[in-house]
Design brief:
Number of helices: 3
Strand content: 5-15%
Strand order of the largest sheet: 1-2-3
Radius of gyration: 17 Å
Length: 114
């Protein structure tokens, strides 16, 4: 009975998290050279954080595609950090939304390890 209650609470919690605004995004890379593959980077994020356990879950764990995807994801997060930082400093007044966006991508760029 306790196990049933624990599973029910876990399902309700996860459902609440999904309803709280988790978004799934997919970014498609373009190959720099003809022999490089196209990589689809899939990840879930909220308004304030990227959920690292979901990055590249569209590839089998441990595969070459998974490793290449995670490396490309790190680069993507760093690019998004640079873009969000430029947008943050381009305005002459403080914007809470731009600040949160900048913190989200810069935190992901630093903390995400492929």
């Amino acid at each position: 009975m306790r196990l049933y209650r624990a599973l029910l609470c876990l399902l309700l919690f996860c459902g609440g998290v999904e309803a709280a605004g988790l978004k799934t995004s997919v970014h498609v890379t373009r190959p720099a050279k003809n022999k490089e593959p196209v990589i689809k980077i899939s990840y879930r994020h909220s308004t304030s954080a990227v959920h690292f356990d979901s990055v590249c879950d569209n590839y089998p764990f441990g595969s070459i595609g998974y490793r290449n995807c995670r490396t490309a994801a790190r680069d993507l997060f760093r690019e998004k950090c640079a873009t969000a930082t430029a947008a943050f400093y381009a305005t002459r007044s403080y914007s809470e939304a731009r600040s949160i966006e900048r913190e989200k991508w810069c935190d992901a760029g630093v903390r995400f390890l492929p």
